[in-house]
Amino acid sequence: MNKKERGERIRRQILLDVGNHASDLTKHIAHKFGITSQAVNHHVQRLERGGWLLSEGRGKGKRYFPGDLRRFEATISLDGDVSEDVLWRESFSHVFEGLSQRVFDICQYAFTEMVNNAIDHSGGEHVTVSVIRDKMFVHIVVVDDGEGIFRKIKRMCGLPDERQALLELSKGKLTTDPEHHTGEGIFFTSRLCDVFEIVSTGVKFCHDDGRPYDFIFATGLAAEDVGTMVSMCIRRDTDRAIQSVFDEFAGPDEYQFTKTVVPVRLAQYEHEKLVSRSQAKRLLLRIDRFKHVIFDFDGVKAIGQAFADEIFRVYAREHPDIALLPVHMAPDVAKMVKRALGQAQ
């Protein structure tokens, strides 16, 4: 371990231990690393200047407290009795203290939902959770060493590939354990965060509240790599509230998840066009679980007649109780949808 790495380790330990050693922090760290109190003070002062630590008093009466900027990381074994709410309460809640109630609630929801997914679904041996609270954002990252979320959904739901698994996941109400889970956690967490990303099996999915549509990237990692990483970013000044997001996707006077947004762009493979009925049928999988389905065509320049017909005439006629609403259509897309709707009359 070089000097820089050792310094980072010491400062990280200071931030981890300040909560339990407010009055003897310097002595505690000096003993733990076998260094002088003067050396510890160098690191403490650096953290104070950066906003990571606060202090009050002087000399032997000096006490230290977590600053406005905070971070914490822990790796937990999944071989045993692990509970996401206990992990939040006993190990991580201090990172979120002092935030607005709105942001605190979003962070708690996102943290517990994604850690629970790793516990219940990953099939892995460990999960590593890291949280960084900087001046503008709260960053939460949950990494497991399991099978990989897209690969597992593909296998358990009999889907043709991981990309289809990702599309189904983006709709919501998808779970590999329907007796114990509703499949709503990832959907709502992604809508509560300003940026939500999942990386697994060489594929990266990104839902960015500041962009018009969801993205899929090739990560450069080998597709056979195992594990899943979920990364969440929440603005500290967000005006988003949990209940308003729930209400957006619930029907009037209902407490059920009745509306979904289908990102049509995710159904495109590479540079292919959406022209066939088979492509449309893949897009339509499981939407009978909703009463209102919004097809978001952002990023789709054109579609074929058969593709539009299968959704807006054939499926609409067979499911008159489901409202199908196309939005963000390019001119060529709008023409095909209008034609299909006209023929459905």
UniProtKB/TrEMBL annotation:
Residues of the Histidine kinase/HSP90-like ATPase domain: 97-199
Protein name (database record): DUF4325 domain-containing protein
Pfam families documented for this protein: DUF4325, HATPase_c_2
Domain DUF4325: 279-333
Signal peptide (residue range): none
Top-level taxon of the source organism: Bacteria
Gene Ontology biological process terms, A to Z: regulation of DNA-templated transcription
Organism: Prosthecochloris vibrioformis (Chlorobium vibrioforme)
